[in-house]
Write a structure and sequence with these properties.
Strand content: under 5%
Number of strands: 0
Number of helices: 11
Shape: globular
Oligomer: single chain
Structural class: mainly alpha
Distance between the termini: 38 Å
């Protein structure tokens, strides 16, 4: 057997740290500017970097209007809706660990909704996992209420953000084709930029405090999240590490909570950790593979 390359061995750990840290780092950046302004700057930087890579690598572009349209829809749902409303939720006080936990419902929703498109039956274990995950999330939110009163508007934006990334994933499953990752990201970030720009111009003052912490946070979000983390995610999937990627996603909420505690002092009471564990088990039950046999 060919030994696994060193980068593939290290990739899960690097991905987990970078992806988990993005929640807290975004909250750091939002101390110096407004949500849509931050996203416009982030996406503009990502488009510029992807544009350079596109000029060097010259990957193929989509060949039909439908392919262009599908990439734009996915980019808008994930970049504009998911990131845009997540950043608004952060600004309204939703904790980084709580946001990561809410976003961990995405594979459950995909598993529940996708069968409507494929005709596959949804078994009781998925519904049971969803109920367990919801119970754990409620426990996290309730326990954090003793530390910081919940912002229901923030949770509403987080819920719509969850719908955005779920919709983008389902659209990609239904209509997506195998495009070069540079092409996909360039079009996706471009669509996200165009989707966020009007909202920024209409609602925000577009002021930025260009401090050292802000520049460092922006560099992390652009390079660490948009380029390295996404690149590692695609590389692991293409290398056949899908099961490992799924397992890593269960570790993102506690990882995000730990990094937020260390970086910005967000407290997670012991009861919240218990709720996070319960929710993680629920997510695992809902999305685990049940073999070739359909669930009853």
């Amino acid at each position: 057997m060919t030994p696994r390359p060193l980068w593939l061995i290290a990739a899960p750990f690097v991905f987990l740290v970078l992806w988990s840290g993005g929640y807290a780092v975004a909250k750091v950046a939002l101390q110096y500017t407004q949500p849509m302004t931050l996203l416009v700057i982030r996406f503009a930087c990502a488009v510029a970097l992807m544009g350079v890579l596109f000029a060097v690598l010259r990957p193929p572009l989509p060949t039909t209007r439908a392919d262009w349209g599908h990439l734009i829809v996915v980019g808008f749902l994930i970049q504009s809706v998911y990131f845009g409303l997540s950043y608004i939720a952060f600004g309204l006080g939703v904790a980084a660990g709580t946001m990561a936990l809410i976003m961990s419902f995405q594979p459950i929703l995909v598993a529940l909704v996708a069968p409507r498109w494929t005709g596959e039956a949804v078994g009781l274990s998925r519904w049971g996992g969803l109920v367990l995950a919801l119970a754990g999330t409620v426990l996290v939110i309730a326990s954090r209420a003793t530390v910081e009163p919940p912002s229901w508007a923030g949770f509403a934006f987080a819920a719509v953000a969850l719908c955005g990334i779920t919709g983008g994933t389902l659209w990609e499953k239904r209509f997506g084709l195998s495009h070069h990752p540079v092409t996909t990201h360039l079009i996706g970030y471009g669509a996200g930029l165009l989707g966020i720009l009007p909202l920024m111009l209409a609602t925000e003052e577009m002021t930025v405090e260009w401090t050292g912490p802000f520049v460092a946070a922006l560099a992390y979000l652009v390079i660490g999240n948009s380029l390295i983390a996404f690149g590692l995610l695609l590389a692991m999937i293409r290398a056949g590490e899908v099961a490992k990627v799924s397992a890593l996603l269960f570790l993102v909420p506690p990882g995000a909570a730990l990094i937020a505690w260390a970086l910005i002092g967000e407290e997670m009471p012991p009861l919240a950790w218990l709720g996070m564990g319960i929710a993680g088990v629920g997510v695992w039950i809902a999305v685990r593979r049940v073999g070739k046999r359909s669930e009853a």
